[in-house]
Structures are given as C-alpha cells and as structure tokens.
Specification:
This protein is of the alpha+beta class. It is built from four helices and eight strands.
Length: 195
C-alpha cells in the first residue's frame, strides 16, 4: 500500500474497532424481566417492616440475569424485598446489614458499582470502551435495592439485590449456610439462607 492509502485504511480500522465496542460489556437482562419472588422465600418481621430473602442464585441464573458469573467473581447477589407494614416511616438508609457464614466470617456489603469493579477484575476485563463500562454499570446498578429513600405507606415496597463479597475474595462456594442480619430498623431481623 502507498502512504496515501494507509491513512484512510487505518482510519477505517479504528472506526470499526471503536463502533464494535459501544454496547455494554455484559448483556444485562432488563429489570422488568425479573420474575416474582419464589414460594420458598424466607422472611422475618422487623417491627412493621417485613424482609424477604430469595434463595441464592445459581450460576446459571446469575449468567442469565447479568451475563456474568458473579459467584466466580466472589460476588454474591442476594435478592431482597423490604415491605413497610405500618407505623412511622422507616429510614432504611441507617440500617446495618450484615451477612455471616457458618464459620462466623462476615461478608462485605458492596455498593453495586464496587461489585461491577470486582466482576471486571475477576473476569480479566481490563481493556474496554469506557462507554461500555458505563452502560454495564447502569444496567447492573438498576438491580440494586434502594435503601436511601425512607419506607412509608405511600412508598411501601422495595425490591432488588444486595451484593456481598466473600471474606477472602475467592469464588462463592456452594452448600453454604448464610445468615443475613439487619439492625437499626424498628426491630432487628435475622434470616438464615441455605444454598
């Protein structure tokens, strides 16, 4: 190729590469497609607030929702529903949420954006279009439960995921017994979750 032909060719290659990487890093299923909580959901009452926790996602369910295997990343997505029953509005942002395993090791509660970083690191995703990461983050964060807005009779139900990191940052192993504890609500609540 001559020098004149090289410049347009390189520009064309650059444009093709740039446009091919504009979607999300992982194809996240829309939140509206999330099915209702299953019948075998565990629940606890926290003094006018009911907390329901769905069974742990399998690797396949995690792949189906997020196109990423969260357990391999050391991230546990715990599906939760919080429902206000009655009384004074509840400030859920002050709630202290803990997850412990059978060895009494505490799992770190992750903001959804930190879970995204953990997933990318565990999957070895380092070179990407920044817009693709933003799109993945936006779609992933939409699954996180809103714990900032108070619960009241006019806004009585929240659904979404809490994301936890394993104590040693290793993949989540199956067959675990975990206990979710939520404090600083009208009453503390504790729910045992079996894998």
């Amino acid at each position: 190729m001559t020098r004149r032909a090289v410049a347009p060719f390189m520009l064309a290659v650059t444009l093709i590469v740039a446009t091919s990487c504009t979607g999300s890093l992982f194809k996240v299923k829309p939140v509206t497609d999330l099915p209702p909580l299953p019948a075998n959901t565990r629940s606890a009452d926290a003094g006018g607030v009911t907390i329901r926790v769905a069974p742990l996602l399998t690797d396949e369910e995690s792949q189906e929702l997020f196109e990423a295997n969260l357990p391999v990343s050391g991230v546990l997505a715990l599906r939760v529903e919080v429902e206000f029953q009655s009384g004074v509005p509840v400030e859920v942002k002050r709630a202290k949420i803990r997850l412990r395993d059978a060895q009494n090791k505490e799992w770190k509660l992750l903001p959804a954006k930190s879970a995204v970083s953990r997933i990318l690191k565990a999957n070895g995703v380092f070179a990407y279009n920044p817009n693709s990461r933003k799109q993945f983050e936006k779609e992933f964060v939409a699954y996180a439960i809103d714990l900032k807005t108070p619960l009241s009779s006019s806004d009585s139900r929240r659904r979404g995921f809490l994301f936890f990191q394993t104590p040693d940052k290793r993949p989540v192993s199956s067959g675990q017994q975990l206990t979710l504890t939520i404090e600083r609500l009208p009453q503390p609540a504790s729910i045992t979750i079996n894998d």
